[in-house]
Amino acid sequence: MQNELKSAICFNDFVAYFGARGLLAMAWWMGAVHAGQIREDQTSFPFLQLVGAAGSGKSLLLGYLQKLNGQTPYSDFLGHSTPAGRARTFASAGQRIVICEEQGELGQSIDWDELKPLFSSGSVSVRSGVGLSEKVTFRGALVITANQRLECSDAVTSRMVTVDLSAYDAHTPRIRPEAIGNLDATEASAFGIEIAQSGDWICSSLKAFLPAYQGQLTRKYGADLNGRTALNCAQMICLVDLLCSLLAVPQHLQLETRKLVHDIAFFDTIPY
Fold it and tell me: How far is residue 118's CA from residue 96's CA, in Å, rounded to a whole number?
């Protein structure tokens, strides 16, 4: 079953190209399918910030991940919409993943703090009539793509897991992008079906293992580690382990991906 699933999603080509960063993004994507339930159980689910200059592979990576669950995510150009428009997008997304593209100098200034509720309660206010509004729960997950890391408050940064594709070792040129981009969406949906049916396993595993992972991170990095970052990283380590178990990922790649998560925790403790 594992080999069939890996073959259906061209997994070997994917990790040969994107390596541990790709695996980390895939682990987040697996959790994002059940983000609403994870928020209920764990009080939060992190945003994914995907960073890289033009040509770094952001679109290729997102295109691949979108085929895995057979859903068309909502896309929103943050700089080209109003706060009310963004709220309507989140309210109507259901359990889907919302991809927000930061437009830099082309877009208007964004108050990133307005997105903070999506991390925890998922509650957004939507205008329902003249002078009226109603609270709607966002049960999906949020991806923010940008050419460089967002300039935002620590409160927002601590709600994100960042995958930086601009790093020198982010992917290897030995694998042609077409090997990933031409993934058959119908065959790849087998992965999405497996993940959708594994919700109880994923969520119960997070409940069982999260306290230990969070405790290990807190002991290793001390009081300087932000509590939200510790929770985010513990969730990601657990999701990485679950994904590696599901797909029988080689241990060296699992450890390399775990190290990326530990790097997030470490850099959180460095004062700026």
Answer: 13
